[in-house]
Amino acid sequence: MIGTIQIREAIPSDAENLLNHLQKIAVETGFMTMGAEGPGKTVEAKQKELESILESDVTVLLVALDEKEIIGIAEIHGNESPKLKHIGDISISIAKDYWGIRLGTTMMERLIEWANGPTSQLKRLELTVQARNERARHLYEKMGFKLEAIMPRGVKDEGDYLDVCLMSMMIGEI
Ligand SMILES: CC(C)(COP(=O)(O)OP(=O)(O)OC[C@H]1O[C@@H](n2cnc3c(N)ncnc32)[C@H](O)[C@@H]1OP(=O)(O)O)[C@@H](O)C(=O)NCCC(=O)NCCS
User: Fold this and answer.
1) H-run or E-run covering 92
2) How far is CA 172 from CA 8, 59, 89, 111, 122, in A?
3) Model pTM?
4) Is the pLDDT score of 22 beyond 70?
């Protein structure tokens, strides 16, 4: 099934489709930081953001498409500040119907490839994940991420304060 799914960098005309995906994922699982309030961005604002991401050497945003529908997003979000420009923050979300077909693995591989590529200045990838999100933690560990800390009360979901894991992966030599 994964053979029919296309993975590519997001382009400005993906904005509306991308916002729809984020809204759907936000309510589909309790694992995202964003809740039912959704992304809270206009299509125009998202278009502008996607334009600047395409120009960026610290941020990359991949989308997975089934036909025309975005069914997965994976991002390394960088920081323009010189003292933090070597750090990329990872996030990934795949629609539930498409879990378990190695799409998460494939998208993470593509992100790590980009982070190791010639245009990247990244030296450290980091992410946070709810401790109870065993599928995501397994995926990150499989990709080589190491647990750095567990943050008690790192997020509140439906009234419960939950542990959040900080994980990281170093890129290249310094
Ligand atoms: C986490 C997520 C990206 C994984 O994507 P996916 O496409 O299902 O991942 P894959 O199919 O490539 O791999 C899943 C791995 O988890 C394993 N797995 C599945 N359920 C598991 C569980 N309950 N406990 C441990 N491992 C589990 C699978 O066996 C597979 O590992 P393997 O390749 O060693 O066999 C996806 O489920 C998702 O988007 N979830 C909702 C949003 C989210 O949680 N994002 C991360 C927030 S930090």
Assistant:
1) strand 87-94
2) 24, 17, 16, 14, 8
3) 0.96
4) yes
Query: In the beta sheet, which residues pair with residue 169?
Result: 125
Which structural domains are found in the chain, ordered by start?
2-123 (3.40.630.30)
Regarding the beta carbon of 167 and ligand 1, being less than 6 Å apart is answered no
- The Cα–Cα gap between 53 and 123 comes to 19
User: Which pLDDT tens digit goes with each residue over 28-84?
Assistant: 989 999 988 888 899 999 999 999 999 998 999 999 999 999 999 999 999 999 999
Helix (H, G, I), strand (E, B) or coil at 39: coil
Q: Please state the atom number of ligand 1 nearest to the C-alpha of residue 94.
A: 39
CA-nearest residue for atom 37, ligand 1, is 99
The answer for residues whose C-beta is within 8 angstroms of residue 168's C-beta and 6 or more apart is: 124, 125, 126, 127, 145, 146, 148
Distance 44 CA to ligand 1 centre (A): 32
Residue 82 Cα to chain centre, angstroms: 22
* Tokens matching residue 122: 């990244």
